[in-house]
Specification:
Layout: E1 7-11, H1 16-27, E2 31-35, H2 39-47, E3 53-55, H3 63-77, E4 82-85, H4 100-128, E5 131-135, H5 148-168, E6 174-180, E7 183-184, H6 186-199, H7 203-210, E8 220-221, H8 222-233, E9 244-247
Helix pairs in contact: 1-8, 3-4, 4-5, 6-7
Length: about 260
């Protein structure tokens, strides 16, 4: 029961990694505040968690909205111990193909959302010596093709992680980043469906293609990434701060120029 007497705020909590993280925290004795832009999936997740879950729909990149989320969290549960900044989205296109609106959307969805969520939560977190986990991506360490906005903002999340760890460690606040590789989530499923059309394979076939050179040879499940997040958020990781942890089935261990020798 690592999360007994613990309250966690999770953004992007309606599906995928966010939903899996919420379920795991509640299973280990905690309470969760589920936030995201779409109320219906949040309520669906909360339905299985009972009184341990509070649904507060909000755009994580909106200062007033997130201030209200934190206020409702404190009014309902009386404390805030953990923030999982998981909200995110696409940032498609090369630099030349990305217009101002597309760039701003990528920054807002992936970077501003995490910054504002954490900023609004920090006063409560410093009272508790709380923990922050930011969900970056393997794209926060390496560049995929034609996703300039996504790659740039996911890299920036690692800088934000280290800045929070540096500035607020003296208040007992820890901040760490998780960089997943391919994970079976609704967003990834959409990408696999698009790849499948090009390669003339089904969704599972597309996942096999993108993990062909991954050491473990498969995508992660949301629950596996949630296990990493909850470890970092818990007191089991009490000495870990400013860390960047990959959850990528070994992808980042591969030396690309040697693949031809396999």
């Amino acid at each position: 029961m690592r999360f007994a007497d613990t309250v966690a705020l999770i953004t992007g909590a309606g599906t995928g990694i966010g939903a899996a993280t919420a379920r795991r925290i509640v299973a280990e004795g905690g309470k969760v505040v589920l936030s995201g832009r779409r109320e219906a999936p949040l309520k669906e997740v909360a339905a299985s968690l009972g009184e341990s879950a509070l649904v507060v729909p909000a755009d994580a990149g909106d200062s007033a909205a997130m201030k209200a989320v934190v206020a409702k969290t404190l009014a309902t549960f009386g404390r805030l111990d953990v923030v999982v900044a998981n909200a995110g989205g696409h940032g498609l296109g090369t630099a030349l193909d990305t217009d101002d609106a597309g760039w701003q959307q990528a920054v807002h969805t992936n970077l501003t959302s995490a910054f504002i969520t954490i900023r609004e939560a920090l006063p409560a977190l410093t009272e508790r010596g709380g923990s922050v986990v930011l969900v970056s991506s393997l794209a926060g360490l390496f560049a995929g093709p034609a996703v300039a906005g996504y790659v740039t903002t996911k890299h920036a999340l690692i800088g934000l992680t280290r800045s929070i760890a540096r500035d607020y460690g003296k208040h007992g606040v820890r901040a760490n980043a998780v960089c997943p590789g391919w994970v079976r989530t609704p967003m990834a499923d959409e990408q696999m469906d698009e790849l499948g059309k090009v390669k003339d394979v089904d969704r599972d076939g597309a996942y096999r293609i993108v993990t062909e050179n991954v050491p473990l040879g498969r995508p992660a499940e949301s629950e596996e990434v949630a296990a990493v997040i909850t470890f970092l958020a818990s007191k089991d990781a009490s000495i870990v701060s400013g860390a960047v942890v990959t959850a990528d089935a070994g992808s980042s261990a591969v030396d690309l120029p040697t693949i031809a020798f396999d």
